[in-house]
């Protein structure tokens, strides 16, 4: 699979994302050529070539577009009879409706809701607040589906999505298993609102932003004077009733995710809880995605004028993606599928 995870973008600010997961695969051309001496024609006719198709959805998985009340998303349902564990999939600042991870999880036996919450259709383009009741409505919609096992659901989340995922795990009893990929343990820059409660964002110091040698922005130090050391800003993770899987890329240049996961782990430990697992990957960057996805070192977001350096080294990042994907599925099954004991 190194032919896939080692791919490099022609435009260094490109991120390989599958948008239409149902109707078309990625088509990847492989060509086998003889190694040419430096002075000979490097564009000789290949000895052999073929086109591989990489699908992001298994046969029989169905996609249901969700437009119910204010909810916007896409629900992916595995084939077959019986009930399946339910999961909500949350991405971060990229916005829009991102479906490729949800379709892959459904292909492995999870009813998965790819949930949009900004920059999509009639949702706010600029996120000014996080209304947790919106996500609560999504959790209840998922639990009402006849193929969802219940009584709890899982969340898989990254970056700002992980910030929201942590907040949901604290406030919603429906959430029993939460995967947090490179997220903070505090509120970043817009308030969270739940009923009559407002959780204010953490102050940051923009002068602590740095740039790499290519001029790409690095934000992992901007909370060094606040959220990185002042427990007043930490979310009360100990109030969560479910379980957590922290996934950390130690070369994350966007968020100091290793520190934040360690802080959250210690907070749980101080309150006598052991409802967490921490997977920390040296050399992995911020965008830990499903296996064999090429590393995206830097890209732009619609909300920012500058490109962001996400970090990561090609080989260890690929290894982290492959290992964490299996661990995510094990974790979700362990905490969402009840253990049946024999009555004999």
CATH class: Alpha Beta
What is the CATH topology assignment?
A: Rossmann fold
Quaternary status of these chains?
single chain
**CATH-derived architecture:** 3-Layer(aba) Sandwich
Q: Tally the helices.
A: 6
Q: Which structural category do the helix and sheet elements fall into?
A: alpha/beta
State the fourth-level CATH superfamily.
Alpha/Beta hydrolase fold, catalytic domain
Largest sheet: 8 strands, mixed
- N-to-C series of helices and strands: HEEEEEHEEHEHEEEEEEHEEEH
| Secondary structure tally: strands | 17
Strand content: 15-25%
Record the strand order, biggest sheet: 3-4-6-5-8-9-14-15
Give the overall shape. Answer: globular
Tally of separate domains: 1
Sequence stretches where pLDDT stays below 50 over 5 or more residues: none
Distance between the termini: 46 Å
- Radius of gyration over C-alpha positions, nearest whole angstrom: 21 Å
Helix percent band: 10-25%
Provide mean pLDDT, rounded.
Answer: 94
Care to describe what's here?
The protein has one domain (56-336): Rossmann fold (3-Layer(aba) Sandwich), CATH 3.40.50.1820. Helix content is 22%, strand content 23%. The chain contains 6 helices and 17 strands. It has an 8-stranded mixed sheet with strand order 3-4-6-5-8-9-14-15, sandwiched between helices. A 3-stranded mixed sheet has the order 7-10-11. Strands 1-2 form a two-stranded antiparallel ribbon. It is globular. 43% of the residues are buried. GO terms for molecular function: fatty acyl-CoA hydrolase activity. Keywords: Fatty acid metabolism, Lipid metabolism. It holds the Pfam family Bile_Hydr_Trans.
């Amino acid at each position: 699979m190194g032919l896939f995870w080692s791919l490099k973008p022609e435009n260094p600010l490109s991120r390989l994302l599958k948008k239409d997961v149902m109707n078309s695969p990625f088509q990847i051309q492989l060509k086998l050529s003889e190694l040419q001496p430096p002075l000979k024609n490097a564009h000789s006719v290949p000895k052999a070539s073929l086109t591989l198709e990489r699908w992001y959805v298994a046969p029989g998985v169905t996609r249901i577009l969700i437009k119910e009340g204010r909810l916007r998303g896409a629900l992916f349902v595995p084939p077959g009879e019986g009930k399946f564990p339910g999961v909500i999939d949350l991405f971060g600042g990229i916005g829009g409706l991102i479906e490729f991870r949800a379709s892959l999880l459904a292909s492995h036996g999870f009813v998965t809701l790819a949930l949009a919450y900004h920059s999509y259709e009639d949702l706010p383009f600029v996120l000014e607040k996080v209304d947790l009741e919106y996500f609560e409505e999504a959790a209840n919609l998922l639990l009402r589906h006849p193929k969802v096992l219940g009584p709890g659901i899982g969340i898989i989340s990254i970056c700002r999505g992980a910030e929201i995922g942590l907040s949901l795990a604290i406030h919603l009893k429906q959430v029993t298993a939460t995967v947090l990929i490179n997220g903070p343990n505090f509120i970043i820059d817009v308030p969270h609102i739940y009923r009559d409660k407002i959780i204010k964002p953490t102050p940051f110091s923009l002068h602590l932003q740095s740039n790499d040698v290519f001029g790409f922005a690095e934000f992992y130090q901007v909370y060094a004077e606040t959220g990185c050391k002042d427990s007043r800003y930490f979310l009360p993770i100990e109030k969560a009733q479910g379980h957590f899987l922290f996934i950390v890329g130690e070369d994350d240049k966007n968020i100091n995710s290793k520190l934040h996961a360690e802080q959250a782990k210690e907070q749980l430990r101080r309150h006598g809880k052991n409802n967490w697992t921490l997977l920390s990957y040296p050399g992995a960057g911020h965008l830990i995605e499903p296996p064999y996805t090429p590393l995206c070192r830097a890209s732009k977001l619609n909300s920012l004028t500058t490109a962001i350096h996400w970090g990561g080294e090609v080989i260890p990042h690929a290894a982290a993606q492959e290992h964490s994907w299996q661990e995510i599925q094990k974790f979700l099954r362990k905490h969402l599928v009840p253990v049946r004991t024999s009555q004999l």
